[in-house]
Amino acid sequence: MSNALAIAHVTQALALLIENNVGPEFGEAVKVEPRKPPADAQAEPTISVFLYQVTPNTSQRNNDLPTRASDGTLVKRPAAALDLHYLISAYGEETELVGQRLIGSVVRTLHETPILPKDVVEQAGERPYLAGSDLAEAAQRVRFTPTVMDIDETSKLWGMLHQTPYSLSVVYQAALVFIDGRETPVPAKPVERSDVRVVPFVAPVPETETEDPVSKPAPASESAPAPASPSAKQAAKAPAKTAAKTVAKAPAARTRKAAQAGKSAQPEPRKRTARRADGEGTEN
Q: Which residue range is the domain that position 55 belongs to?
């Protein structure tokens, strides 16, 4: 948590971090200015750190609610969670590709050191216009992450800078910066007396349900007959088999008797014809 000087303090610390790392690597003096990109061409190596937008942090913006009690008493100091958006541009001799070399050094510096070091914050706080800033004591450290912008967004951003020619640049987001309120919350009243009560534990007793005699199912002995023994099954099958055999044999015996009676009742035509022939011969 920090006061209202936190935004300016982060901008100055970012410019100081870039200056401490880019200058020795580049091999010559590099001027780093925390301001908007210059409208005039710069002959000497120059880097501008421009804060073009401040937005509320979406993940922390409502974590401090509510801050007051029902009677209006302040119970918690409000804190605004912010994200800072920076445009970092490089200038120099175009024939020697100074701007591109500076941008490469800036990207490597912020990739190697994405979190703002405490010693850099303390060094930046020595500026007279940042006296009274407490960003160095903040528990939350500021982290820098690159932001991707397409051609349309880049054109709109540089279009806001009136009469400023485009220069090679990168965009970074700084998160998270807290700005505390000025009021001090009223401390809570101390505990006058603490009461400790011990209640014996009693096991819960389940409730018994009343049985309905109508819906109560009948016992197994009354609803279904007892299974028959193997000897009783064999005794029941024996008369059934005997009766079936007797019924099946009766029509067959009757059919054979009727056929025999028909054969005995038929005359023998051949023998009678022979007898008639013999009788005719004797009569002559």
A: 6-180
Is 210 domain-assigned? no
Helix axes 6-26, 98-112, angle to 10 degrees: 120
Q: Is residue 17 part of a domain?
A: yes
74 in a domain, yes or no? Answer: yes
- Residue 77 region by backbone torsions, left for phi larger than 0, else alpha for psi between -120 and 50, else beta: beta
C-alpha distance from residue 254 to each of 214, 257, 262, 265 (Å): 60, 5, 13, 17
pLDDT of residue 280: 45
Q: Looking at the chain, how many residues does it have?
A: 284
pTM higher than 0.85? no
**Rounded Cα–Cα distance for residues 176 and 79 (Å):** 12
Interatomic CA distance for residues 272 and 284, integer angstroms: 19
The pLDDT tens digits for 45-62 are 999 999 999 999 988 877
* CA-based radius of gyration for the chain: 56
Answer yes or no: is pLDDT of 273 > 70.
no
First to last CA, the chain: 166
**Which is nearest to 155 in space by CA: 140, 170, 166?**
166
The answer as to whether 230 is a domain residue is no
Q: What is the dihedral of CA 47, 52, 57, 61, to 10 degrees?
A: 140
Q: What is the DSSP letter of 50?
A: E
Q: What is the largest CA-CA distance in the chain?
A: 183
Bridge partners (DSSP) of residue 86 are: 51, 172
CB 3 within 8 A of CB 134: yes
Indicate the number of domains in the chain.
1
